[in-house]
């Protein structure tokens, strides 16, 4: 157990507002944190939130739209986002495309709406396009904020993010030496979704001080999917004397981008996102995803992969059969589970996770 | 290889098959009788030019059986920029159309279960499931599908196709061209169009390599010209429904749109639609409506329910409801004016960014509102297609606006375009009845 | 008094199964009862009665099934592992084990040396489980044994398209009200269920032989249709329903 005090989203919003910052509510998944920061805007991400009552969204979205979008919209409609100044909707998938469009055409929020189109391949055309898309957003933000930060300032913010990405990677690599439950580990990690960089950095550094020589003697799991919600999934894994050794989750590892090369700040951010870890919503190939997940398993002592999929999330669904097959050829077992972030974990799901851990433990 | 395939192709397709099909068409056309069980008590006799639809489709799939090794084969998405491939002499297969055909022949479920068995979720698009199922099991009602040498996927209809085509690329091990089209929330930006243009240019090289020859620009222009002409004719056919009674129901359009999707850019397609237009004009002259007793005029939004076209068309016609405009069939005509024969690549970049499915939910509402006014409609059926999120998200707001601001009856009909498990006859009937009561 | 070395308790969603084994893993007793809401008391009651005839002083207790959290035991293991163990020790061969219970069905691939290679369970819904048939049986007031018999002897079959237990039930009623023969509809209902199971089997990858456990394996119509769908005769233990508890007891032996 580590005793770190992590402020809540609400506390962060209030504090940053009192310092004169603007707040942007950001929907999943990829977006340029740097670009918002340089305008003195604090991004606060909206992943769900889980266990939301989605009745308000039901007036706008059919039942076959995933729970992430359902609760994201309900959260707005219930008034929880009244306090923010901007709403950012990246074009991650057809459902978020729809959400962005409904916001713009029907809900018409009083806040500034920012949409981001993400290119789906990794060629130079794609990087160039994203850089242009970022320049468009820069213009939008400078109109809103009334100033135009220069390239140097933006570059500074980029470097800060690059350093944090490195630190996060170190945090992952120390996972087995940290006396943390899976829930604690991910609570710390996911505070990046709303904390200013300096605060997040000091929390990570503090946690890393507690790394010990001895390794956790538990069965390691790679958790793949959108987000570890409801977080009870982490407890179920820990209860089996296992732990999440590393993840391939959209809210976490898939956004630990590498350094960019370009000296042009817009291009550099674009490079970071386009060339970052593979993600279904970026349209990466099966081989890219397989190699990445395998490298995660190799990096740790993880023995199996759990694909924890939000029901109705098409981007993820398509990858499962072939990835499962490729992993199995590489002697890595995997399990596919479907969830609704607003519902408690069903008993069946718990049984499946337990049986999976029994299975990989038996055969290793 | 090569020679043998060619001989077989020439004999089985070019000579025997094609002639036989054409002979049959001529014969049926001459002694034209509506198909058996056609409800002439409530519907106009089926379109006589419809026999050519059958012919075009039959020839297309027959050619597909023998084409491997003779022409390069490309599998493409329904909104893909095929003009370059056409100009390079590719045989082009549309898995979505094949999927629709499986749906209409009521074998889509069986085929998609083949994909489900392999772990493809029941919650992914039923076209994708049907196609992956056909790939895995080789099951198809058309005998045999030719393997692709190239895959072309354009995201201007959805992101789903991107994943689906990745799966195909994995199974067939052939090159995949992705034309990524930024979503248009209101207006396409300059850098959006530029991005698409660059991708189109980059795709030429890959396609040429697969085809083993280089692109002739005059040929490309010719294809664009024919494409544009066919689309304009199609648009004219749909607009003929502004007449009262409306001459061609949307259910018929669903069937007869196959050539504009599958054979766009061919001279025969232009011929075909001009013949069809003549027949439609003939109907208008004689005051023949698509249904006998046109009491109410309504629009259809979203994909057809392929396996229930007849059921819906008859049930609605029995009650005097004529479905005469649709955002779906319109999609293959509305962009024709954007095509510029003199600047093929530039105009393609623009045209392919602007399909209705790549535009905002507000734009679709506007399209429907315009239809309500221009076609003088009484109601709208919005098929909420659980398979197709890009088409369906936004319908709940659109429906309310149609109802409250235009005062037309509007129904959200929950189903799926290709998966019959999402359709219960009695439930659907009771919804439609309530909708009809709203219009009275 | 014989000494019970290990006791397996399978507190399922529908029934409670208790099996005791001796040192060699031979079954000394097996009990099947409908599960009580208060399954912990029910278990204790049964165990106390058994103590009159058996020496259970040093017996290990291994619990499995839905209700296992409520039961006092030395160890708790999932049904997947228990059914796999039970089936493997019973038939002494790897292959595909299918447990069809009241609320869940599980397809388990077992390796040559008895390890679980892969498995799959139905989702939240009850399609393809015992409940799928039972709902209709209750509604029509026909006992389960009779349902199976009707299906087995039917000369025709009506297609039931719903895989959802609730919708299937109303589909059955509407077929009957339209004058379809009872046995044809019941046979169709069985077919829908068996198809669901077959597709699960193909999803993990069918590896013969097919071995059944769980209460529904006693349903002869299901067994016959599985054979028709898969082209492979299923092997069935003398009492398939106790395989999970038997496996649990065996796991206790190696503690
Ligand atoms: N003779 C029989 N013929 C037909 N069905 C039977 C017969 N005996 C039991 N069943 C069915 O078996 C089911 C119960 O099986 P079982 O005891 O394996 O379930 P369970 O272990 O409690 O459930 P689960 O594993 O899903 O939690 C019931 O649906 C019941 O109808
Ligand atoms: S969970 Fe999937 S479908 Fe839902 S918003 Fe995220 S990427 Fe889109
Ligand atoms: S039906 Fe919709 S989701 Fe499916 S391929 Fe077509 S546009 Fe995409
Ligand atoms: Mg059981």
Please, could you describe this protein's structure?
The complex is a heterotrimer of chains A (364), B (440) and C (255). Chain A is an alpha/beta fold and 364 residues long. Chain A folds into two domains: 9-149, 3-Layer(aba) Sandwich (Rossmann fold), CATH 3.40.50.11890; 152-363, Rossmann fold (3-Layer(aba) Sandwich). Chain A is 46% helix and 14% strand. Chain A is built from 14 helices and eight strands. Chain A has helices spanning 9-18, 33-37, 67-77, 94-107, 124-145, 151-173, 182-189, 197-209, 232-239, 265-274, 286-299, 314-317, 320-329, 347-363, and strands spanning 22-26, 41-45, 86-91, 112-117, 219-225, 242-249, 304-310, 333-339. In chain A, the strands form two sheets. Chain A has a four-stranded parallel β-sheet. Chain A starts with 8 loop residues before the first helix and ends with a helix. Chain B is α/β, with parallel strands linked by helices. Chain B has one domain. Helices cover 54% and strands 10% of the residues of chain B. Chain B is built from 19 helices and eight strands. Chain B has helices at 3-30, 50-66, 83-87, 95-104, 108-117, 126-137, 160-172, 190-211, 217-239, 250-256, 258-262, 267-285, 309-318, 327-330, 344-351, 361-374, 389-392, 395-405, 425-439, and strands at residues 73-76, 91-93, 150-154, 176-179, 296-301, 321-326, 379-385, 409-415. In chain B, the strands form two sheets. A four-stranded parallel β-sheet of chain B has the order 2-1-3-4, with helices on both faces. A four-stranded parallel β-sheet of chain B has the order 6-5-7-8, with helices on both faces. Chain C has 255 residues and is α/β, with parallel strands linked by helices. The model of chain C has no long low-confidence stretch (mean pLDDT 92). In chain C, the strands form three sheets. Chain C has a five-stranded mixed β-sheet. The two termini of chain C are 23 Å apart. Chain C is built from eight helices and eleven strands. Helices cover 40% and strands 21% of the residues of chain C. Chain C is globular, with a radius of gyration of 19 Å. Chain C has a domain at 2-85 and 242-253: 2-Layer Sandwich (Nucleotidyltransferase, domain 5). Classes of the chains: A alpha/beta (364), B alpha/beta (440), C alpha/beta (255). Chains A and B meet through helix 4, helix 5, helix 12 and helix 13 of A and helix 7, helix 8, helix 16, helix 17 and helix 18 of B. Bound molecules: adenosine-5'-triphosphate, iron/sulfur cluster (2 copies) and magnesium ion (MG). One iron/sulfur cluster binds at residues 96, 125, 127, 157-158, 160-161, 303, 357, 387-388, 390-391 of chain B.
């Amino acid at each position: 157990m580590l005793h770190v005090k992590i402020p809540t989203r609400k506390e962060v919003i209030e504090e940053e507002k009192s310092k004169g910052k603007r707040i942007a509510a950001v929907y999943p998944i990829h977006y340029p944190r740097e670009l918002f920061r340089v305008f003195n805007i604090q991004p606060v991400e909206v992943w769900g939130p889980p266990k939301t009552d989605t009745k308000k969204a039901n007036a706008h979205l059919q039942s076959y739209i995933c729970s992430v979008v359902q609760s994201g919209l309900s959260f707005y409609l219930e008034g929880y986002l009244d306090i923010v100044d901007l709403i950012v909707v990246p074009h991650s998938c057809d459902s978020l495309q729809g959400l962005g469009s409904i916001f713009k055409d029907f809900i018409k929020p009083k806040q500034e709406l920012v949409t981001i189109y993400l290119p789906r391949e990794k060629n130079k055309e794609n990087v160039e396009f994203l850089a242009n898309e970022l320049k468009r957003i820069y213009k939008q933000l400078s109109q809103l904020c009334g100033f135009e930060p220069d390239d140097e300032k933006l570059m500074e913010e980029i470097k800060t993010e690059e350093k944090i990405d490195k630190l996060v990677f170190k945090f992952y690599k120390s996972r087995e030496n940290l006396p943390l439950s899976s829930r604690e580990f991910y609570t710390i990690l996911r505070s990046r979704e709303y904390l200013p960089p300096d605060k997040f950095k000091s929390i990570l550094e503090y946690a890393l001080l507690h790394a010990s020589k001895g390794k956790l003697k538990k069965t390691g799991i790679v958790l793949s999917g959108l987000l570890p919600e409801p977080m009870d999934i982490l407890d179920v894994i820990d209860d089996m004397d296992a732990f999440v050794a590393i993840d391939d989750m959209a809210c976490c590892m898939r956004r630990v981008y590498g350094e960019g090369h370009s000296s042009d700040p817009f291009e550099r951010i674009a490079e970071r996102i386009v060339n970052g870890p593979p993600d279904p919503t970026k349209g990466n190939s099966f081989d890219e995803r397989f190699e990445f997940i395998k490298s995660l398993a190799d990096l740790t002592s993880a023995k199996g992969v759990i694909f924890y999929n939000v029901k109705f999330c098409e981007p993820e669904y398509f990858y499962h059969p072939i990835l499962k097959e490729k992993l199995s050829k590489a002697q890595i077992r995997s399990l596919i589970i479907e969830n609704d972030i607003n519902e408690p974990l069903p008993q069946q799901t718990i049984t499946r996770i337990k049986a999976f851990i029994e299975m990989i433990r038996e055969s290793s | 290889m090569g020679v043998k395939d060619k001989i077989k192709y020439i004999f089985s397709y070019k000579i025997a098959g094609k002639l036989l099909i054409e002979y049959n068409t001529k014969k049926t056309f001459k002694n034209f009788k509506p198909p058996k069980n056609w409800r002439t008590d409530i519907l106009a006799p089926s379109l006589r030019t419809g026999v050519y639809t059958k012919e075009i489709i039959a020839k297309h799939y027959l050619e597909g059986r023998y084409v491997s090794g003779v022409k390069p084969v490309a599998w493409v998405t329904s909104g893909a920029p095929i003009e370059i491939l056409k100009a390079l002499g590719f045989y082009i297969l549309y898995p979505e159309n094949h999927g629709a055909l499986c749906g209409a022949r009521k074998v889509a479920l069986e085929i998609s279960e083949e994909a489900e068995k392999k772990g493809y979720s029941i919650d992914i698009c039923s076209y994708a499931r049907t196609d992956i199922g056909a790939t895995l099991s080789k099951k198809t009602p058309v005998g045999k599908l030719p393997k692709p040498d190239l895959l072309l996927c354009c995201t201007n209809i959805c992101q789903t196709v991107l994943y689906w085509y990745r799966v195909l690329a994995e199974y067939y091990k052939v090159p995949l061209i992705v034309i990524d089209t930024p979503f248009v929330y209101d207006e396409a930006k300059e850098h959006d169009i530029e991005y698409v243009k660059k991708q189109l240019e980059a795709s030429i090289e890959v396609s040429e390599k697969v085809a083993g020859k280089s692109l002739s620009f005059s040929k490309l222009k010719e294809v664009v010209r024919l494409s544009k002409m066919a689309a304009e004719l199609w648009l004219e056919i749909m607009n003929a429904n502004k007449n009262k009674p409306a001459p061609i129901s949307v259910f018929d359009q669903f069937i007869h749109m196959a050539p504009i999707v599958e054979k766009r850019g061919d001279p025969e397609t232009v011929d075909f639609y001009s013949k069809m237009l003549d027949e439609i004009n003939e109907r208008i002259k004689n005051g023949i409506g698509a249904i006998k007793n046109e009491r109410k005029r309504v629009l259809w939004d979203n994909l057809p329910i392929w396996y229930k076209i007849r059921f819906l068309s008859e049930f609605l016609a029995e009650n005097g409801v004529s479905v005469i405009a649709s955002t779906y069939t319109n999609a293959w005509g509305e962009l024709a004016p954007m095509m510029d024969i003199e600047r093929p690549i530039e105009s393609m970049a623009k045209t392919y960014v602007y399909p209705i499915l790549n535009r905002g939910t507000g734009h679709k509402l506007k399209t429907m509102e315009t239809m309500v006014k221009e076609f003088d409609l009484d109601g709208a059926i919005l098929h909420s297609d659980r398979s197709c999120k890009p088409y369906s998200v936004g319908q709940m707001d659109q429906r309310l606006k149609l109802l409250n601001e235009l005062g037309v009856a509007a129904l959200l009909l929950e189903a799926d375009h290709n998966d019959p498990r999402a359709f219960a006859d009695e439930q659907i009937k009771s919804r439609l009845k309530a909708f009809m009561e709203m219009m009275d | 008094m014989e000494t019970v070395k290990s006791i397996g308790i399978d507190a399922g969603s529908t029934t409670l199964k208790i099996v005791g084994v001796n040192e060699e893993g031979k079954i000394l007793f097996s009990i099947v009862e409908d599960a009580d809401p208060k399954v912990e008391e029910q278990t204790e009651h049964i165990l106390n009665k058994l103590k009159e005839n058996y020496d259970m002083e040093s017996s290990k207790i291994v619990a499995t099934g839905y209700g296992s959290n409520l039961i006092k035991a030395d160890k708790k293991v999932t049904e997947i592992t228990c059914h796999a163990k039970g089936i493997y020790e019973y038939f002494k061969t790897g292959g595909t084990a299918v447990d069809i219970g009241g609320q869940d069905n599980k397809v388990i691939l077992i390796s040559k040396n008895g390890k679980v290679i892969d498995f799959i369970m139905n989702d939240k819904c009850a399609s393809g489980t015992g409940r799928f048939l039972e709902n209709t049986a209750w509604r029509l007031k026909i006992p389960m044994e009779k349902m199976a018999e009707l299906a087995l002897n039917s000369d025709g079959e009506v297609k039931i398209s719903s895989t959802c237990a609730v919708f299937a039930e109303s589909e059955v009623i509407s077929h009957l009200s339209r004058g379809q023969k009872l046995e044809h509809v019941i046979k169709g209902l069985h077919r829908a269920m068996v198809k669901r199971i077959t597709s699960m089997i193909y999803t993990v990858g069918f590896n013969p032989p097919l071995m059944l456990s769980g209460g529904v394996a006693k349903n002869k119509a299901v067994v016959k249709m599985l054979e028709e769908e898969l082209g492979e005769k299923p092997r069935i233990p003398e009492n398939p329903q106790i395989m999970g508890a038997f496996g649990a007891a065996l796991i206790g032996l190696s503690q």
